[in-house]
Amino acid sequence: MAGVHVSTVVNGDPVEFACQPGDTLLDSLRDRLGLTGAKEGCGTGDCGACSVTLDGRLVCSCLVLGAEANGREVGTVEGIAEGDQLHPLQTKFIEHAALQCGICTPGFLVAAKALLDRNTDPTEEEIRYALAGNLCRCTGYDKIVRAVQAAAQEMGGK
């Protein structure tokens, strides 16, 4: 089977990789680009552990083909921090103990950032709605919601 050449932008950097036509974006990110933040939790788009943004839209990378990233912009958890400077979401997740095993954390961070990129002052209901596609078996959701609220406040929300 012939490979597919993909030219894309990941976390602001232009990248190229080859993948098989049936390879998922998740597999391409992890296996071709070494970006292992997104995790495969379910493989069916039900858990959110593999959440990334594609042209600014939150997607489950297990449901998107790697070839579909061609000419598009991908955002992963690895692109949230700026160098050694953690994003306020990452800092607040730590401060609020909003993580435990870490499998779901990258997906929650990407989903929360996607929310805050379009709504700097979300209500609790809006936060819970935006994170509804992400499942956590360890922390419960209150600490995660509080961390997102605190990050929004720090970032200039009301």
Short description:
The protein contains five helices and five strands; from the N terminus they run E-E-H-E-E-E-H-H-H-H. The protein is of the alpha+beta class. The chain folds into two domains: 76 residues, Roll (Ubiquitin-like (UB roll)); 67 residues, DNA polymerase, domain 1 (Orthogonal Bundle).
CATH top level assignment of the largest domain: Alpha Beta
The dominant shape is globular
Overall CATH architecture of the largest domain: Roll
Low-confidence stretches are: none
Percent in strands: 15-25%
Mean pLDDT: 95
Keywords for this structure?
single chain; globular; alpha+beta; five-stranded mixed beta sheet; 158 residues; 2 domains; 5 helices; Ubiquitin-like (UB roll); DNA polymerase, domain 1
